[in-house]
Write a structure and sequence with these properties.
Layout: E1 3-11, E2 17-24, E3 32-33, H1 41-51, E4 61-63, E5 66-70, E6 81-82, E7 96-103, H2 114-117, H3 130-138, E8 152-153, E9 156-157
Parallel strand pairs: 1-5, 6-7
Antiparallel strand pairs: 1-2, 1-3, 2-7, 4-5, 8-9
């Protein structure tokens, strides 16, 4: 079953430290499932973005079980919940943005051991964890994404650096 991964890549001022915001369901603990009987999961991803007023930064791109749908930072993002606004047990469960940090350097893919910890954070049925999602995303060459007014920083996936910041405090 494919999973939709609406994502914001937010560059930081620190070299080797990247922040990603993923839009998740079930109070920020589960990837969004796309029914496997749909003939075109990419169209379903576009429909989800349109229905929820999320502005695509790139065309959705499928890799394995994940359909990555990078979105632009826009003022409309303030209409969504953030993970810290959604305590465990919130009923009914909410969809919300949740942030993750990825640490790497040119000579060490995980210098602080932080990324390995993400493998212990399930975001769906095994083997889907925060690590597998972010590692899959980071392994995609930037050139594979069809840009919609987006720039690349250091060959990595990033939204426009001069666009408004996401309105969730980190």
């Amino acid at each position: 079953m494919p999973f939709l991964v609406p994502i914001l890549a937010a560059p930081t001022s620190r070299p080797g430290l990247d922040q990603y915001w993923i839009f998740l369901e079930r109070n920020g603990n589960h990837l969004m499932e796309i029914p496997s009987e749909l003939a075109d999961p990419i169209s379903a991803a576009v429909e989800f973005l349109t229905t929820n007023d999320l502005t695509p930064a790139f065309e959705p791109l499928q890799r394995g079980d994940y359909i990555f749908a990078p979105v632009k930072k826009t003022p409309e993002l303030s209409d969504f919940y953030c993970w810290r606004e959604t305590p465990p047990g919130t009923t009914p469960p909410r969809e919300c943005w949740r942030s993750f940090l990825w640490v790497s350097s040119d000579d060490n893919p995980d210098p602080w051991g932080v990324n390995a910890l993400l493998a212990e954070l399930p975001l769906g049925p095994a083997p889907h964890t925060a690590y597998t999602v972010l590692k899959t995303l980071r392994d995609i060459p930037t050139s594979d994404f069809k840009a919609q007014h987006v720039t690349s920083v250091d060959g990595k996936l990033h939204s426009e650096p001069d666009s408004p910041q996401i309105y969730c405090d980190v």
